[in-house]
Amino acid sequence: MRHLGSWLARVGVGFVRACVVTVVSLLVPAVWAAAVALGIWWGAGNPWSWVAPFVLVCVGTLALSRPVCRMVRFLVARWTATVIPSGYRQTPQVTQLSTGYWWNGFSYERTSRDALLDQRWRVRWQDPANWRDLRFTAVAPLTAGVVASLPPAGVAAAALGLSQPAPSARLVGAFGLVVAFVSAPYAWRFVEPVAVRFLRPTPAMALADRVDELTAQRADATVAQAAEIRRIERDLHDGAQARLVSLGLSLATAEKLMETDPVQARALMREARAGATASLTELRDLVRGINPPVLNDRGLVDAVRALALDSPLEADVSADLRLRLDPPIESALYFGVAELLTNAVKHAQATRARISISRDTTTIVIDVEDDGRGGARERADGGLAGLRRRLAVFDGTVEITSPAGGPTLVRMMVPCESL
Amino acid sequence: MRIVVAEDLYLLRDGMVRLLEAYGHQVVATATTGTETLQALLRHRPDVAVVDVRMPPTQSDEGLRAALAARRELPGLPVLILSQYVEQLYARELLADGSGGIGYFLKDSVFDADQFIDALERVAAGGTAMDPAVIAKLLSSGSSNRRLEQLTERERSVLSLMAEGLSNHAIGQRLFLSDGAISKYTTSMFGKLGITDDDNNNRRVLAVLAYLNNP
């Protein structure tokens, strides 16, 4: 009894869903049918009789293709929990220039409204997803639409056939009813594989997205690099260079005073020596910030061990091998670990840290865990965001788990070629 | 003393040789690469060697590796490592065999020539000489920090000078204290850390370094 109840419920739900799928997938063919009907109704000999239907078909198909795809995606997600990424182009930010005009990535417009409107149309028109949507609207009625229309068609056949007195018609009607009942729980399901196959982003779209992503990353990287070079230049100019000039001055003065005032000359020499020591210290700190010596000498694992030794935390390093990676990746990961250890000391007030470096066939994984108070948040201009950007250049990712009260675990992952 | 100098930059090598000769020492050989350094050390068996860490061909830690290899062949061969950077990691590697005769300094320590030559002589005599920067790092690393909490400020400064390789007398001169006061501090310090006090200065310094080096 209960089985029968649940089966009936499935038949009911399936029938409703089949009807919905049928309606959605037949929207565009319905427009075409309407256009054909219009042409026949106007009759031949009238030029409008083919121009108007033609325009109706074109505009209707273009206008309906995207809403139909959105609806199918929504229904599939709702009924089967299969989420299909849409992959539509995103509109970039519009920015106001110093001239007062707005730049939307394509053209200059006088107001932000015009800029947005223009941008929306251009993005919409140039989106490679349009071709995929059109293809889906052509494929869907012939596949998912046909199958999903079985239950409604069966019920329609039953309604027509059973109302006729002829026994053959009644037989057809009864058969239609049986077909409707048997197919109702399953007929709508065919929409899922069709949608997964034809609605996911095409390789061309994935490529376009990847190009956008890389362009953004390249811009980020160049800006960061330029800032870094400026910082180094400034540090050298204000630090070591200035000190060396004063060193030369002291020595020149000392040379002059050698004969006349040896005591004063000796004092100047001492000063010069102190200046040389100070400028060396500055240069050392600068170089450490560019490319730490241990990283250059020994590679990532030993450099991280040295970092752990120098940290005021009790830091254990477990690394399962002496791996050598490309210098840029090593550098990014090293500065990542340095950043995280600094955070652990400064913000989380941790006392212990655990760093593990491991590698499987395709990924380098570095975990940095501390026993601090947690609650680490990523701010747009903060160190963690910078770390994410630095690793993104190598398609690396950062995962941060930091509940309030700790502990904080940050996992950095960078893909690498298998050995 | 008979000294080998390993340094790839001509200006520095030349300056070093002149400085050593000005103090009346004899430079028996110079080397400019890691392999040359190892050969010179093994062939000449100098009283002490002054070795730069970064040398051709790889421009990595060639000099350090050569020194460690030579000391494996000739245990206790006195070597003073000079570098633009002092790294705790390298200091720990140098101290790991615990046999003394090791120095590790920043290059600018040469600016104070008297102290540099003094350190060189200490190393040649089988003692140790560590740059204050190295010792500061050893003292402030996470695990040491916890174990040194029980020391007073004055005891800590005595400990760090001792770890640099100075004798009680030299420590007294640096801190303007009498020898008696220093030995009082060292006794209480060794008691707190549980290190056995040793009359021989070199062995005592090694004990302190071993203690700090033990993470």
TrEMBL record, chain A:
- Biological classification of the source: Bacteria, Bacillati, Actinomycetota, Actinomycetes, Micromonosporales
Record's superkingdom? Bacteria
SUPFAM superfamilies found in the cross-reference section: ATPase domain of HSP90 chaperone/DNA topoisomerase II/histidine kinase (SSF55874)
Q: Name one GO cellular component term.
A: membrane
Q: What is its EC number?
A: 2.7.13.3
Q: Where is the Histidine kinase/HSP90-like ATPase domain?
A: 328-418
The protein's name in its UniProt record: histidine kinase
The protein's matches in InterPro entries, at most eight in alphabetical order, are given as:
HATPase_C_sf, HATPase_dom, Sensor_HK_TwoCompSys, Sig_transdc_His_kin_sub3_dim/P
**What catalytic activity does the UniProt entry give for this protein?**
ATP + protein L-histidine = ADP + protein N-phospho-L-histidine
TrEMBL record, chain B:
Query: Which controlled-vocabulary keywords does the entry list?
Result: DNA-binding, Phosphoprotein, Transcription, Transcription regulation
Residues of the signal peptide = none
> Where in the numbering of this chain does the Response regulatory domain appear?
2-122
* GO MF terms held by the record: DNA binding
Q: Which SUPFAM superfamilies match?
A: C-terminal effector domain of the bipartite response regulators (SSF46894), CheY-like (SSF52172)
**Keyword field contains DNA-binding:** yes
The record's section on CDD domains has:
LuxR_C_like (cd06170), REC_NarL-like (cd17535)
Q: Which PANTHER family match?
A: TRANSCRIPTIONAL REGULATORY PROTEIN NARL-RELATED (PTHR43214:SF24), TWO-COMPONENT RESPONSE REGULATOR (PTHR43214)
Please state what the protein is called.
DNA-binding NarL/FixJ family response regulator
